[in-house]
Amino acid sequence: MSTTSPRAWASITIVLLLLACGGASSTPATAPRAEGDKAAPDAATPSSAPVVDDRQAVVQLILDHPGLDGYWHQDTLPDRAPLVVLANQHTRGLTLTKFDEPVQIRSAKELAGRPYFVVHALKLRADGAEVRFEYAVEGVRASATLDRGGEGGGWQVTQLDLGER
After folding, report:
1. Taking burial as the number of CB atoms within 10 A of a residue's CB, which of 34, 77, 81, 117 is the most buried?
2. Strand positions, DSSP E, the chain
3. Tell me: the pLDDT tens digits for 56-104?
4. Where are the alpha helices (DSSP H) in 21-75?
């Protein structure tokens, strides 16, 4: 009479478990990514480009709004240009301009007492956006409502509520 080895029993047990659980997965396993690695884009992962484009368009429209022109003072106060914007989830990765030069997007520790603009909230919807922002050096706190669908389907500011402290 022949005996079955422990290794053979282990193999049989694994096969039976796989069969009982529905077989091997058809989804390939992936190794965990190291922090900072970016996943390769694929059809299942939507691109973030439209979100960045929308955030950029909305924030740029806010910076360019004529209602804020009286608060910049870039011609008389040298520390106001280039404009500095606090880096946060609403502004990271954006390429903005003001006063015909690139806006500097900086972390809080890089500000070192400089005047800066901050976007506190930015909510995007398919047909509109809401933004809360501040330019503390001038005591300005504001909110804006934007609609999509202006000329060419772009964004337009429909309401700007400015308040001074």
Report:
1. 117
2. 84-86, 97-98, 101-102, 104-106, 118-124, 128-135, 140-148, 155-164
3. 999 999 999 999 999 999 999 999 999 999 999 999 999 999 999 999 9
4. 49-64, 69-72
